[in-house]
Amino acid sequence: MSESRSGPSAGSAAGSIRVLIVDDDALVRAGLAMILGGVDGIEIVGEAGDGAQVPPLVAEHRPDVVLMDIRMPGVDGLAATEALRATKAPPEVVVLTTFHADAQVLRALRAGAAGFLLKDIPPVELVAAIRKVAAGEPILSPAVTRQLITHVSHGGAVGRAERARGLLARLSEREREVALAVGRGRSNAEIGRELYMSVPTVKAHVSRILTKLALNNRVQIALLVYDAS
Q1: Does the predicted TM-score (pTM) go above 0.85?
Q2: Which ranges constitute the DSSP H helices of 9-156?
Q3: Number of helical (H) and strand (E) elements in the chain, helices listed first
């Protein structure tokens, strides 16, 4: 399991980022497609109005990024995200929501989503976020993560804390230091400066953490650190 994707898929035109839009609101899909359709380096490869349509569309079009609505009839975005992230070499999933303090958003992040976007995000920020996710970087600040957990955690916190501490105990001392730095929102370069490592060494530690703990991405490392604290 690698730390991040290697970039847009080999099938992308001229290295463009392939995006699949999933939302049950046709107007939302049309708005997103209109915003992204004219952007250099981004290609809309498909649209879906239900989570059940996602697996065949992903298999057919091999998107790099899936913009995923959470609340949809039939198969919702949470189930679709969990199914996608359990497959081999899955696309990055970005949750679309109207409210950031949402229990479903937090569950999607725990399932492996790379972050979330509010549906009223300015176009320039939407494009920047898609490019960031396609490059393997999560779009979620530690402050937002803490706010989500504070607003929507209900019960099970003790059990989660014990589980998280048990998982972190599997790591070497150096790996735990890196995990804690990821939880503080540090970039690889910042972690390298703090812990006196080269960036490639930091990346290697992050990849080992993901493999050892069966996690999908840095967001899940950060959530684990928050659960253990």
Answers
A1: no
A2: 26-37, 54-61, 77-85, 103-111, 123-134, 142-152
A3: 11, 5
Please give the full DSSP string across 132-172, using - where no structure is assigned.
HHHTT--B--HHHHHHHHHHH--S-HHHHHHHHHHHHTTS-
Can you name the residues that pair with 65 across neighbouring β-strands?
19, 92
Query: Can you list the domains of the chain with their CATH numbers?
Result: 13-143 (3.40.50.2300), 155-228 (1.10.10.10)
For the segment 85-113, the average pLDDT, to the nearest whole number, is 84
Count CB neighbours of 182 within 10 A.
25
Separation CA 201–CA 34 (nearest Å):
41
For the stretch 170-218, pLDDT in tens is 999 999 999 999 988 788 889 999 999 999 999 999 999 999 998 888 8
What's the CA dihedral at 97, 103, 188, 174 to 10 degrees? Answer: -170
